[in-house]
Design a protein that fits this description.
The protein has one domain: 3-Layer(aba) Sandwich (Beta-lactamase). It is 35% helix and 15% strand. Helix 1 packs antiparallel against helix 9 and helix 2 packs across helix 6.
Length: 347
Amino acid sequence: MKCNKQLLSFSIILLLLANTAFAQTKQIDSLMKLANQIGIFNGNVLVSKNNKIIYNASFGFTDATKTNKLTTDSRFNIGSITKEFSAVALMQLKEQGKLQMSDKVSKFIPELPKWANEVEIKDLLQYTSGMPNVNWKSIKNDKDIFDGLMRIDTLDFKPGTNYDYNNNNIFLRQFIVERLTKISFKAYVEKFIFQPCRMDSAELTPLKDEENIAKGFNNSLVPDKADLPITGGTYLTAIDLLKWTNCLHNNKIINKKSLYEIGQQFNLPETQSALGQAKFKNENLIEHLHDGRAGNYEAILVSDIDESFTIILLDNNYNGKAFEISDKITAILKNQKYNIQSKTIKK
């Protein structure tokens, strides 16, 4: 009799959980349909909870012609989220004993000017190197970026004393990986990051495969300019970005200590780590938030490890509302009050 009561109680709990998940999925679907209807979201959305995908949908069009509709196989530029790959590559090499966080850049690229004797690997990861930003007007390829680093004569501040989020830190990370591994950064990421995580759609620029690429465009239906032929931008599906978070959070690609190290940021407000915004408790990752922009592409990744959910929004028609949408999805998943009326998410 006691056993039957326990089974009944367990069945009721499972039914309630199923009903809750179904209700949340319906609410997310209503929110996303409204966001698309009023013209503030054109892209793909994926929501995972308790290690299961509960929502995976596409809204809108692949490009400015509005001829073809997006599908869940569409690949989007994820902007700054790409920066996680160069950080992880460096930590993989650290785990192999090939570098230390305190190593100076000059150890790996000795021909750089004298400032490279001051900048540490840690500075590149936390954007505290003091290097000025890339002069995009003079950039046409990877060689131009390296030549720009060679022309830097003075740093903007002493490394480790201030913060400046700029792409020279990222490109220098990539050049160091290439020097240590003797292969291109693109080849390294594809072999040692994308393949182990089974990210089948993921590809770094320059693209070899243009299939299923969503093209950025603005609200005047003007398409984004073509990508520069430089290494670093990443195009992938929402599914593959979820695979990346699972691989990273479960220490399948780097260990727990390395994950903690790249999640640290400079001690000033409004700074980012190599993971964007990462929160730890007793050196365990509990929250991971990262967003990216590239032209009219926008990507947002929100993972709450304690609550066991991940939200991914990939958009190719920027309207500046993706954060607001992700906040409402978060409220739904946490069973908090929210409002999806159109007046609360105006264009």
